[in-house]
């Protein structure tokens, strides 16, 4: 009998390994039992705890309009509990059963986090009451005494763990320690503090703090370099349960609680847990245009639905692509108090062997050899920047750090990327952790076109050094415009500094293939370029190819145009247009040639971002030299119209209407509409079976806005034939 009870006991205890006395403490959710009476020995008969100082109540001043949330910039969080930022004092009030006498009474506060609190790990924090508060160190002092109550000002450490702490008040008696019982209403969330100079995420500009920490909507720039498109994204970091969901992500990533005061560690583990590869993280990526059993990436309007679904189901949410990973990552960072922004790199290299060179192989006809070509150019790629000091790196590499939750390549065996210092990438110091060489290649690779001759030798026909990372942008501070940050990542193209940074990167082990072994002698006296006419989805358009013959020779060029439908990642789905012609090039003159693309040629195969990729190659027959160039283009996609009716006042019902007209020459089937707006309405969804061609759909929604101020409504429409249809509207909600 005794043996069986013994094994049961062992089952309850967590398994220990030989290396540590306590199991790892990596869940903010689990708790330990804290004794309400901790006796020093035998308790004499007649001992009555009521004879001693006894806590009747603890007031946290945790309402949005009260002092703590106002001073700590946490009044927007939709949570009944106290939320404060580290390294800055906050107030609580304790009511005792009688007036507090400092000469004889002794009490202290205890903050605990996790299941195995330990003082040296920062997970058990006893705070004695003193006379002064030291900046950035734990402490408490009495600011006010009245009747049986005292008011305390409490300072948290500027390096304190980020998470949800439990609070106990302990009173000393000669026979033992008396504690308050477990009280959920006194739980305190402690977050990063960009307003505090001692905090690793301190940001000194108030406008930037308002944008990068407190703004709950943002803009995603997409499309391509020649046709920049933008859409809004609702971060919703203050919405109900989002803070708990973000803390859960750190539990999911099994980050030790003692490491959760360090923004570098938090970013590193979060970049892995945002995607579902190898750890069952938040979002499952899908780039194949098949989104059965899930939501198409283009249908999401914000992060809240994704995080809440993951928090409740604990299973990856389907599906995401780069801007979805980046949008959710941004919510996570801003919610915890790390300044963050979403960044788009146009013509982003996905260089799968990190040799700073994207290899495009042409066959002997001059057509792209898709079997040999493994690298790809993404029309755009979104990642995040998070603001923090880097005490682990030499001075000068703090500030913005690249973090990327999109699973592209593994880092230390997992799909994650960053944090990597933007400054280190610019100067080519790619030896510093984490993943700088991969990001350096994303913004700096060359495109090398080579052709296999009939005798089997590879001949380089063209090197394009300016195509990659042409434009890197983010949303401007305090507005919806675009701010270019290309020069944060790279020096002026062709400058001396740029060469130097490249040589530094090569020295630090970024592989750069030399092109000596392959003969490269381009045709210098003929230029070729092409333009794609701007076109609306569903219409015909033309591609114009221009040759400039700068020589005195008469040339003929066998020209080949290949039109491909591509994923925005530059991966080709299929070739929908092939067109060859012979061009006669007169000496010292320009000639143009038009190729018409009909909507019937592309509509049946179009992918969700309406992206095309055109390759034009021309062989100068007289010299045998090849000219090659490529360009991505995006069709104009129709938008949704959003209108409001009547007055818009916080706490009063208002009406929102979404309208859409079907521009295609076909009926749209199984259409889903989504509408959301942080502080105005939770995400609403509606399905429509059919929208006939040229007909208009109208959807009216009633809602009650919570907060006054400028708010944004964001809508999306999604069906198999048409994706990436968005609409948005700024609304001014009045005070009641």
TrEMBL record:
Gene: F13a1
Subcellular locations according to the entry: Cytoplasm; Secreted
Domain Transglutaminase-like: 314-407
Cofactor: Ca(2+)
SMART domains the UniProt entry points to: TGc
Keyword terms, alphabetized: Acetylation, Acyltransferase, Blood coagulation, Calcium, Cytoplasm, Hemostasis, Metal-binding, Secreted, Transferase, Zymogen
Family classification: Belongs to the transglutaminase superfamily. Transglutaminase family.
Reaction(s) catalysed (UniProt annotation): L-glutaminyl-[protein] + L-lysyl-[protein] = [protein]-L-lysyl-N(6)-5-L-glutamyl-[protein] + NH4(+)
EC assignment: 2.3.2.13
Record's GO cellular component terms: cytoplasm; extracellular region
Domain of life of the source: Eukaryota
Cofactor binding summary note: Binds 1 Ca(2+) ion per subunit.
Residues that coordinate or bind Ca(2+): 444, 446, 493, 498
Entry protein name: Coagulation factor XIII A chain
Any one GO BP annotation for this protein: blood coagulation, fibrin clot formation
Subunit structure: Tetramer of two A chains (F13A1) and two B (F13B) chains.
UniProt source species: Fregata magnificens
GO molecular function ontology, one term from the record: protein-glutamine gamma-glutamyltransferase activity
């Amino acid at each position: 009998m005794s043996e069986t009870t013994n094994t049961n006991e062992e089952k309850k205890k967590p398994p220990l390994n030989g290396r540590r006395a306590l199991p790892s403490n990596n869940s903010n959710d689990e708790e330990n039992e804290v004794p309400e009476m901790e006796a020093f020995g035998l308790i004499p008969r007649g001992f009555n705890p009521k004879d001693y100082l006894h806590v009747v109540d603890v007031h946290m001043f945790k309402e949005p309009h009260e002092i703590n949330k106002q001073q700590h910039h946490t009044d927007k969080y939709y949570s009944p509990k106290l939320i404060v930022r580290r390294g800055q004092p906050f107030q609580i009030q304790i009511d005792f059963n009688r007036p507090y006498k400092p000469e004889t009474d002794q009490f202290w506060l205890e903050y605990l986090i996790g299941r195995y609190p330990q003082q040296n790990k920062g997970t058990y924090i006893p705070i004695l009451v003193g006379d002064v508060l030291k900046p950035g160190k734990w402490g408490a002092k009495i600011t006010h005494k009245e009747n049986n109550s005292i008011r305390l000002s409490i300072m948290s450490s500027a390096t304190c763990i980020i998470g949800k702490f439990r609070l106990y008040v302990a009173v000393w008696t000669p026979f033992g320690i008396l504690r308050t019982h477990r009280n959920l209403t006194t739980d305190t969330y402690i977050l990063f503090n960009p307003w505090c100079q001692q905090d690793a995420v301190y940001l000194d500009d108030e406008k930037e703090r308002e944008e990068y920490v407190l703004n709950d909507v943002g803009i995603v720039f997409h499309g391509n370099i020649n046709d920049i498109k933008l859409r809004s994204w609702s971060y919703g970091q203050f919405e109900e349960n989002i803070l708990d969901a973000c803390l859960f992500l750190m539990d999911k990533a099994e980050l030790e609680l003692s490491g959760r005061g360090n923004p570098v560690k938090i970013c590193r583990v979060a970049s892995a847990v945002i995607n579902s590869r190898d750890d069952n993280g938040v979002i499952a990526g899908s780039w194949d245009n098949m989104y059965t059993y899930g939501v198409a990436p283009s249908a999401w309007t914000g992060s809240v639905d994704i995080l809440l679904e993951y928090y409740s189901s604990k299973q990856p949410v389907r599906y995401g692509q780069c801007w979805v990973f980046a949008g959710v990552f941004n919510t996570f960072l801003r919610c915890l108090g790390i300044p963050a922004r979403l960044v788009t790199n146009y013509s982003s290299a996905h260089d799968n062997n990190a040799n700073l060179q994207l290899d495009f192989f042409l066959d002997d006809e001059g057509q792209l050899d898709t079997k040999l070509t493994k690298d790809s150019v993404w029309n755009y790629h979104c990642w995040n920047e998070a603001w923090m000091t880097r005490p682990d790196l030499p001075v000068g590499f703090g500030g913005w750090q690249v973090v990327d939750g999109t699973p592209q390549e593994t880092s230390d065996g997992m799909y994650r990327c960053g944090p990597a210092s933007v400054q280190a990438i610019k100067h080519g110091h790619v030896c510093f952790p984490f993943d700088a060489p991969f990001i350096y290649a994303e913004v700096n690779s060359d495109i090398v076109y080579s052709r296999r001759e009939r005798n089997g030798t590879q001949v380089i026909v063209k090197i394009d050094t300016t195509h990659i990372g042409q434009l890197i942008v983010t949303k401007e501070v305090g507005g919806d415009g675009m701010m270019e940050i290309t020069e944060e990542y790279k020096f002026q193209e062709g400058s001396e500094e740029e060469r130097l940074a490249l040589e530094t990167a090569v020295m630090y082990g970024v592989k750069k293939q030399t092109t000596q072994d392959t003969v490269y002698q381009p045709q210098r006296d003929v230029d070729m370029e092409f333009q794609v006419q701007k076109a609306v989805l569903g219409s015909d358009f033309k591609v114009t190819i221009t040759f400039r013959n700068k020589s005195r020779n008469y040339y003929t060029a066998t020209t080949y145009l290949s039109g491909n439908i591509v994923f925005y990642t530059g991966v080709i789905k299929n070739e929908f247009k092939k067109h060859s012609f012979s061009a006669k090039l007169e000496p010292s003159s320009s000639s143009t040639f038009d190729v018409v693309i009909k909507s019937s040629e592309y509509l049946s195969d179009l992918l969700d971002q309406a992206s095309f990729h055109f390759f034009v190659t021309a062989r100068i027959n007289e010299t045998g030299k090849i000219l090659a160039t490529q360009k991505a283009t995006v069709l104009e996609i129709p938008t949704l119209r959003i209108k409001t009716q009547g007055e818009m006042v916080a706490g009063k019902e208002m009406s929102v209407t979404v309208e859409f007209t079907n521009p295609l020459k076909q009926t749209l089937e199984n259409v889903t509409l989504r509408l959301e707006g942080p502080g105005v309405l939770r995400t609403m969804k509606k399905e429509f079976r059919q929208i006939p061609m040229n007909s208009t759909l109208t959807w009216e929604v009633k809602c009650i806005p919570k907060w006054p101020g400028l708010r944004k409504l964001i809508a999306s429409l999604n069906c198999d034939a048409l994706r990436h249809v968005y609409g948005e509207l700024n609304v001014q909600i009045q005070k009641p």
